Structure formats: structure tokens, C-alpha cells
């Protein structure tokens, strides 16, 4: 049995959506920028015919917006057809679509605040700019909203009546027209619409963190108590407490979300379950140990904090203390957070002035400042999630951690960076940090910890998102999160051990200060630094990924691309005879580079590069024994001693290796070989005589002649995953 299809609409298939989604994830332009190109003086003006564009113009819109040269022709065709709605099909130019429909659709899908999206859509359709839309124009916006909702896998049969209701409510005077103010006001009070527009929720107590969800089993609405119906059993579900409602019921004053803090200091330290009704079918009751059976309705209660389930009547009896369950060590329960009555402070964040929304997690809706009174013998976890890491994975991880922990301890780095989280936790003596993101995100947090001048420097664990992630690999957290059970990973964090990791300052001083060149990406090295052939590969790789995102979707492909670059003939040409273009001094000792034909130099802090390649190579443990970091000299250049010297990320030393050429790079990337060991040193000065490609922690740039100084900065406290992890992280 197949889903009913409307014959006149050539629908996009699910694979199309996924493909389009991947393109949109990588695009950095905004629809309104592309739209400008279709203005009279724009680059694409000649493709616009009045209000419309033809298929060629549509193709150019996509190419410009998504920044790709070779967008698949068939996908472009199907997308184009999906914009040929009934209205334009009847129009004379049936071979064209309305530019504003296209713009409205894509702007609904891009990142941004709902208020801005509502206003953008309004202005798009308010042709004469008189500030009011008639009902047919509003219908067209709604049509594009439904279109976007389909793309996001919503069952629009549920959304349509909600939007219709909203329109009736907005046009209170039945004038048939809607003003901008009415439109935005109406939209901002419509919960399902806000969820569709990607509302970035600012956490207020009692406000659910809604998202659209499909269920594969019968689920009942917490508001009207009836079942979620329809083919895909769709509803809005709160990420924090799992309260679930029909789209239409979300506007009908649902019960508030769970409390995330207590009212006053005297209420702290009193652990109590927080019960939410429903969806406990066939699970065992924690009190009477009997199965919780469904009687066609909301069944049982589950506790938001410890996640135990009980019969409704069992939840009322014997109020026991909530233990917070198996994640007790990490959870900051509501009874550990209380407000203090004082003026909300304007906390100055690192580097950026305080904006209005960034410390909402730390204050009550009426402006009282929240403080932590931690539960004894726990190590509350301060979580930072970079939602932009690893495609949509960052958002998924954010949501799941908001459920497993208290949303007040889970910070979205897109909302004001790490400042608010660090300042909320800064008076705690014993806590841990979890960074969910790539190596770059980890570096960001370590910098913020440096700058925050904290009395206690908390240890940092990593949940690696995206690809690469060499630092996470070295700390045994794996190269990339693949959707494993997060509570198991949290338990691994509980069993992890602390380790100090060196961090290095890098200073690049150009010879000619007036010459303009690429900016140096970082001032600190956490992972590695390289010059020459390796960096030029990274540089090309970086440029290619920007231009052709579709080719870089899987980790496997990333590896293949490296290999392809590494073995290409032309690459190494610019780095031939590198030893003539630079000199290296390690603690005053010049390295002799003349004997080998080096095309690249890499300086390593950690034993992994470009997603798991080990350039220094293994050193047998037995050989390295006997030399502790105290006894080790400031610099070692003797090849015989280097041979038995192991790499270590907390020895206050850097490893210097030489790379002989492109072919060798290919072998190193595929693990067939390691590089030539040149030195182990606590300080380096490099002087270059010509422009060379360089990279720090995977970020490449082209650097004109310069002097580079690398010195030890400090050591960061990191968490190393337990050797035998309960998770499924494979080493590679
Ligand atoms: Zn309902
Ligand atoms: Zn909730
Ligand atoms: Zn509980
Ligand atoms: Zn029971």
C-alpha cells in the first residue's frame, strides 16, 4: 500500500530531501543575499521576468544559494516542478515559477530567528510595501510554509488547520487584510508554527522545549488525552520532559514543563520525583514491580530526573526521594539550583559584550540570578554543544542531553558561547566539562577556560562530532559520534581519568609588515602545526570542501580525497627543496635539513593528524622506559635517541618530523609509513624565505616570509576515556 499522491504534484522523494538537506547544511549564504542578485542591477537580473523565473533562472538561484557548480540536473528539475503550484500552472507562463515563493521556501529552511523569518516572508509578499497583506497573499505564504514543512517531514494534515486557525485569529476585525504587526504577533504565539520555523528556545522555567516527532507506537496527547492519529503518529514532544501533544493542542495551554530550579535556598537539598503522565506502556512499575498496562489512554507516570516509571496510583503512594538514577553523578537537579534576589548582573563575557539572550539559562524569568548548591558527592557536568558540528548531529545531541540532564546545565554554543556556562559553574569546587563538537570547538572552550581566570580548572571530556577530531581520538573518545547511547557515554565520563595536555603559543611575525596575506587562524596549537606539502594538501582539501560540499559527506570519502590529493603530482611542486626556503632552530640548535629532500615539516603535540594518521609512529614502550619528562633534555636531535623516544601529550615537548613528498604523504595517511623524526624540543623558531602553505590544527592558510616562534603556553586538564569502554567507539 502506498501513500496517496496528488497526481498534479510531482513530489520530491525522500532521497531528494536528504540530498537537499546536505546542501543546505553547508551553505553559508542567506536567501536575501541571493534575491538581491535578481534585482535590476544584480548579476542574475536578466533571468527574472517580472515576478517569475524560468527553470534556468531557478537553477542559477540554487547554484548561487548553495554555492555549488554541479547541482544535479534531475533534482533541480523536480524541485522546480514542486514550485509550479496550481496558480502558476494556470498562468500563461506555466514554464515559470514565482521568485518569491522560492525565496520564501528556502528562507523558512535556513537558520535564523522565527521573528525574522516571519518578517522576511511578509515583506516578500507585500509587493507595494504598504504594510498589509490581503488574504490571498497570506494563503501563499502559508502554502510555502506547508511546502517547507513537508521537506522537514511534517505531516501537514495536522499543521494546515493550525495555520488556518491562526489566520482567523490574526484578522480579528475580519478586514481581510493583515498588518505586519498582526502577522508577527500571531506567528510568535503559535507553538507549532514556531517549532516549524526553528525557534531557538530561550529556557524559561515552565516552557517546554518543543520539537516535531513521529512515533512508531500508539501515543496519547497530554492535553486532550486522545491518541495521536494519522499515518505517522506525529506530535510535538518536549525534549526535556517528553510531554507530548497534538500540534493543535500545543496552543491550548498545556501544563508547564518540569521545574529546573527550586524557589528559594531553603528548598535546596530536598530530592523529589517529578512525574509526567503517559507513555509507560508495558514497562515495569518501580514500586509494585508489576507491568504498567495500557487502557487506551495516558498510562503511568515517569520521573523526569531518575526516569523510573510507576502506575498512576503508585506514584501517589509512598513519596520516595528521587535518586536521579544512573546519571546521578552528572545531574544538576532542580533542588541544587536556587535564585538569589539581586539585580541581574551584566556579566562580561570573553571577547564579546553581553547580549540580551545569552545568560537566560542562568536567570529566572523575573531577572533573579540562579546559583548552584551542588548535591554532595556528585560531579555536575557542564555541557557545551556546538549545534553546527557534524551536520544535524549537534542538534540531536543537544536535545538528548537536555533530556538526560537538567537543561540548565546544557549550553548551546550558538547562544552566547561558553561564557554563560562557565560563569554559572565557576564557584563549584568539583565538576566536569563535556564539549560536544569538533577539535576546533574543544580549542574554543580551552581558550575560554584560560581567559575566565577560574580558581578551579575543571577537567574536559570530549564527545566528538563531525570528522577529523584528532584530539578526541588521542583521548580515546573516538573519531566521531555515530549515534551511540548517550547515557553509556556519560557513564564512561564518570569512569574517565585526568591527564594534562600541553598547549603551545604560536607567534607569526611577517617579514614585510605591509604585505597583505591570509590571517593566521589560531594563536594556540593544541594538535599540530605544519608547513609545506602536508599543509598544501590541507589547503586544497579545505578549498575543495568549501566548493563541493556534496563530495564530502562521509568520513570514508574524506579519507579518499586526502589520498587523491596526496598522490597528485602537481601538489608538491610548490614545496620542492623546502630546506632552501626555511630554517628551523630548536632551543638554539639548528636542524640540519640538507641531507634529505624534505617537502614538508610537521610539528606535533598529539599523536594523531588528519583523522588518525600517526606521523611520529609507534615507539616500543620498553625502549622509552627510564626517561621521565623531568630528566629529558630540552631538545633531542640525535637520530639514535629519537628512535627510542615516545610521543607524549603532557611532556612539555613538541615532536618535529620531516615529510619527504607527496607519495610518502599518501602512505602516511593510509598508515603504511610514518615520517622522518627530526627533533623533540621544548621551543622552536622557524624562519621562512618564501610564501608557503601552513596549517594549525587542520586550518590551512598561505603565509608570506616570516619568523614563527612556538613556545609552551600551559597545560589543560583533559579527561581520557577508560581503556575498556562500554560504548561502541571503534578505534578507527
Ligand atoms: Zn490533543
Ligand atoms: Zn517539557
Ligand atoms: Zn525521580
Ligand atoms: Zn505500581
From TrEMBL:
Gene3D superfamilies: 2.60.200.40, 3.30.60.20, Diacylglycerol kinase alpha, EF-hand, Probable inorganic polyphosphate/atp-NAD kinase, domain 1. It comes from Gouania willdenowi (Blunt-snouted clingfish). It is found in: Cytoplasm, Cytosol. Keywords: Acetylation, ATP-binding, Calcium, Cytoplasm, Kinase, Lipid metabolism, Metal-binding, Nucleotide-binding, Repeat, Transferase, Zinc, Zinc-finger. Residues 113-148, 158-193 form the EF-hand domain. PROSITE patterns: DAGK, EF_HAND_1, EF_HAND_2, ZF_DAG_PE_1, ZF_DAG_PE_2. Residues 207-257, 272-322 form the Phorbol-ester/DAG-type domain. GO terms for biological process: glycerolipid metabolic process; phospholipase C-activating G protein-coupled receptor signaling pathway. It catalyses: 2-(9Z-octadecenoyl)-glycerol + ATP = 2-(9Z-octadecenoyl)-sn-glycero-3-phosphate + ADP + H(+); 1-O-alkyl-2-acyl-sn-glycerol + ATP = 1-O-alkyl-2-acyl-sn-glycero-3-phosphate + ADP + H(+); 1-O-hexadecyl-2-acetyl-sn-glycerol + ATP = 1-O-hexadecyl-2-acetyl-sn-glycero-3-phosphate + ADP + H(+); 1-octadecanoyl-2-(5Z,8Z,11Z,14Z-eicosatetraenoyl)-sn-glycerol + ATP = 1-octadecanoyl-2-(5Z,8Z,11Z,14Z-eicosatetraenoyl)-sn-glycero-3-phosphate + ADP + H(+). This is Diacylglycerol kinase. Belongs to the eukaryotic diacylglycerol kinase family. Pathway: Glycerolipid metabolism; Lipid metabolism; glycerolipid metabolism.
